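Q: How would the structure tokens look for this protein?
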Amino acid sequence: MFEKKKVWVGVGSVLATTMAASTANAAPLTQPNAAPASFMAAPMAEGEMAAPEIDLSTNDTAFLAQLGFIRGHLWVGMKLYEEGHIEMAKTHMKHPGDELYAGLTEAFNDRGQPGFADELEALADSVINDNSKDVVMNNYKVLLDAISAHEPIADMTAKGVLLSVATMLMATADEYAVGIQEGKVAQVHEYQDALGFKEIANNRLERINSEEAQKASSAIDETRSVLKSLTDLWPTITPEGEFQGDASKIYGAASRIELEARSI
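A: Here is the predicted structure in token form.
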């Protein structure tokens, strides 16, 4: 797994050199790695935008994205599992606990939530120990229900959810850029992570509450269209050798979705 050293602080901030759409109150992004409940990006060079502090205990947009990264790892792991790529699936099962969950424990405590460490471990163990498919699938369902119980999406505005989607697309682009390099597969795991993140970002649109969905129908429809345009970047879940893929399309999609969110 490629270990990213940077902190994503916001689509607008990250793309500040190429677009002027961000505002001072841009919703911050979180990295799909372990992160404390509150952290500050590294000092910026002269002329760059200062990064706002990200508090996962209070920032629902960032918190939802972080939970989305966990879902993304699990989604692609289970997709691989169901297609018979068991050894690949096992590597994704460990990822959410190792890289993500620890960074959410303080936020869970601050939000008065129990967390889902036991459910996460149960799924990972059942896959890694080659338990029956029935056991694995049941553990996956139980875990997804537990994650859903922690997500604030039902109470969020459409704008907040779409900004969280943009967050996930930025991470998707970074993962894809590591996975596909110079016309070939460099890191298949990262390519797969990118697919999982994109799928969860898309699924978020279906969970926006009905009142918000009605008010923001145009922005949501456009976001759905933008996400659909990325489908061809993942023609297979297990690519090998030469492979043409362009992460810039995903970066562009992230910025477009942020603009849609800010138009609401």
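The first strand starts at residue 38 and ends at 39.

The two ends are 37 Å apart (CA to CA).

Upvote if useful.
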